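User: Teach me something about this protein's shape.
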Amino acid sequence: MKGFKSFADSTVLEFEPGVTVVVGPNGSGKSNVVDAVAWVLGAQGPSTVRSGKMEDVVFAGTPDRPALGRAEVSLVIDNSSGSLPIEFTEVTVTRTLYRSGDSEYSLNGVACRLLDIQELLSDAGVGRQQHVIVAQGQIDQVLNSRPEDRRTIVEEAAGILKYRRRKERAERRLAATEANTTRLQDLQREVRRQLRPLEKQADAAKRHGAVAEELRSIRLYLTGREIDSLETAQATAKEDARERNAEQVNLRGEIGRLDIEISASETQLTTAGDHGMDLLPRVESLRERCRGLIALVDERSRTTEADRGSLLATDVALTLEAEASRLSEELLDLVNREETIKRQLLELTEVETELTKEAESLAIDTPLIGFDAAKRAAEVKGELGPLKRGLERLTIEHDRLAKRATELTSEMAVAGQHLDQLQGSLTSASSVEAGLVHEVDQAQKETDNSAEILADVTQEQQSATKDEQKWSARIEALELAVATVRESSGFEQVQEIDGVLGVLGELIEIEPGWETAVEVALGAVLASVVVADLKTARAALERLDATESSGSVVAAKSFSVPSQTPQSGDLLRQHVTSKTDQLKPLLDALLADAVCVKGSWEEAVDFAERNPKLLVVTANGDCCGPDGWSIGLGTNTSTLSALEDARQEVQVAEARREAAEIERELAATRLADTQARLLQAISKLEANDDLLTRSADGVDTAQRQRRDLDSERKILEARITELSQALRRDRPRVVELEERLVELEEAETLERSAATDAHTRRRDLEGRIRAAAQSRAELETNVKGLEEQRKRNENRRGEIGEQLQANEEGADDKTNRLRRVEETSAVLASMRVLLAQRLGVLEQEVEMLRERRSELSAEVKMIADRLEVLRQERTSLETRVADLQEVLASNEIAETERRFKVDNLREMLRNELNADSNEALAAPEPQLSDSVTPAARVRELENDLRRMGPINPLALQEYEALKERHDFVAEQLDDVRSTRRELNKVITAVDAEIVDVFEAAFKDVAGNFQQIFSTLFPGGEGKLALSDPERMLETGIELEAKPSGKNVRKLSLLSGGERSLTALAFLFAIFRSRPSPFYVMDEVEAALDDINLHRFLELVSEFRQEAQLLIVSHQKRTMEAADVLYGVSMAPGGSSRVLSEKVAS
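Assistant: First, the predicted structure itself:
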């Protein structure tokens, strides 16, 4: 010990086998040793260690020593025998308490719990109640304690507490399982309530799922086939587009070739026309010059001939003069004519130049006239045709999508109305849901209340039936008792005698609660036959004697009423009335000195000591009077009043039973009604739950449909926007191209007309040029002829002048001149022949050129016709190219539409079927009958789904989860019930074990108690009895002690020493029956005299070899019986100190 109470210093006490006695003056702290042992073993109440609070066990200090901060006690137990279930030969139990209130326990220095210590020591007979430690004042507690407390001491010694703890644990677990069962049952009911509607939804969802799965597989197959056909068409269209593109390239190449041929033909046409038209004018000009030269030669020949004639003439001078005059006139005329022709030639040259320029311009422009406009018109047509057809398709698609958008708007409006209706239904159902739940709860509460009322009424009926049966049995017992009393009183034999009034107990009425006191006060008289007077009494005795019957008789008038009545106490006479006035004097006489006091027998004894002449009784049947004292006697005498009371109780119980039966029928009816209302409320709730589920599912479906419609509408709006943009982009272009085409067609018409006019004008210009060239050539020829003639005339005039001069001078050279004239005439003649030959050649050349021009005209016409064919072929090719472009544009639009459809189908697969195109393409063909097509089956399945209406898609999962939860709850409930059964079996087994162990322990303790009691009280009798043998689990232990020469029934009547020895006999009987390794007793023999102390020490000596005994004592005799003495002392202002001494044997 260290710091424990008065032991401030570390103190070690070694307890050896045998008896150890601790002695010391009062206040030295010797009882603290007992407190230390109790404390270290786990004492919890401060009063157990004689403290106000647990912190008081810490050394509080003295004037000379400061207070300590903790108290520590260690108890070392020798476990070499292995009594404790631990693998140590020595066990040290330590408890430490700090002044802060913190507490610690340890086993062999290892921290542990108090429960560990208690369980370890319980097998050694040291339990929580610490029956092996008997502290000061506990001796009387053993006797004054309740029977159940004595049982606890026996159970602790017998090691039953571990069974109790096991049972308590089982009962706690059972209580927990009860709560769990209730919760699980509530949960199961709730889950079952939710499961019923969900099962319907799950079945619908399962059917819906099967139909939807079949529909999905068929739609997946059809979608896959459609995607496959679209992709096949797309591939075919791509191949066709490649072929058409190649054809378009070839056609454009052919058009290019035709353009080259057309250009070459136009060039050839121009070259051929020019070549033919240029050569013929030149030849014709040469022919005209040749003709002019011939004319000049002829004129010169005529002149020469005239000269020769003039030379040959006689009048030469006159002739010459005349000729000179003529020549002058001709010369003047020639000059005028020459000037006129030159002026005409100049004009003609200018005109020819203009015509040549115009012809050259026409030659340049004529090949392009009609070609550019036609080419541009063909290009515009090639662009306009596909564009118009594309525009028509875009318009049709736009109108179709706009119509679908309008339909979608209408469908969305309808879907919105349907959604509003569903939301209204959902709101309505939700608004009444709480009320329906409340109605179900209220109905459930009413049903539970009705069930509880029915259970209460049933219990009341059962209780009333039991009470009726009990009181009926009571009546039978009372009637039997009354009959027995009558038989024992001899009433049956004397009842026919006049003056016999009856049995006293049947003739009086006692106030309820006073029966025992009155019966004790009247005693045997209560069973006597009451007669009117002494004469009748004698006659009755004679009759009894004659019939050899026993009995007692009392005469009503044989007693005199005392003159004085007790002045204190409660007079019993006030609580007893008679059925006849003849008994009043008798009752007054019998109960004149009888009073009743409140309290126990002690109060009755005290009152009797103060009033020795009175008969003092208590309500418990205690009686104190001049004839002696008795406790709890009572009588078995029954009165008719009790019988009447019992009969009234039977009537009351019967009335209660009948009323309870009526109430039970009413409660059963109410329960049936409330159950019907509950079922109706549950049905309404389930219907509303179904409506909620359907409405919620419908809302989800409607919202999903609305979202789908809105998504489709947005896609359509986007597509319509694209189409509108395309239309806005293409329509102006179409209008522009149409306007341009009209202009180009008009231009082409104008150009073709202009080309025709140009060709005509060209031919006209060519003719005019040729005519102008011919006229120019003729004028030039004429000019040249006139110039030559003018020169000749001038020359002739000069010659004539010379001749006139010569003629004047002489006629010398006339002969020479004639000769020259003749020579000139010969030259002119030869020249005329040569020119005539050349003219003939030129005529042939002109004719040949004219034929060539005709040929060239035919050739030009042929080239023009070829050019027209080439142009027509080119136009045809351009038309084919335009058609190809239109087909390609149409194919491109169709390809876009197919691609859009494929994208939509793939999007539909992802959104609606949760699949991809590969899965759809690989989908197998559904197994259908020959008469049903997949599309027809799809329509049939869709109709089935529409007929099914909205379903909860998660119902199957929720049902399976809830079913699994229900099964789990049911399994848990079965487990809990199984656990309850097992726990009940455990409790039953533990109860049986407790009963067996307790019966064995009680038998041993009872036997040892009788033996030890007879040792401590020679000639006395002591025994232990069970207070309720029928209930072995709860029965207490009654202790009866009758020392020699005394007949007491209550332990409180024993003297102090007798009480101590009786308690010690009980404790040592327990010690002997279920030994413990040690026992600690604190001044238990203080009230014993020498003889009883001697007997106690002899008993201690018997235990010396069986266990260690630690006794705190002041008795010298006890010290002498010790094997080891420990003296405890305390100096003033100090702490407790210990001195040990072994006693010599």
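Now, about its shape. The domain at 19-131+995-1142 is CATH 3.40.50.300 (Rossmann fold). The chain has 21 helices and 22 strands. If you'd like, I can walk through any region in more detail.
User: That's plenty for now, thanks!
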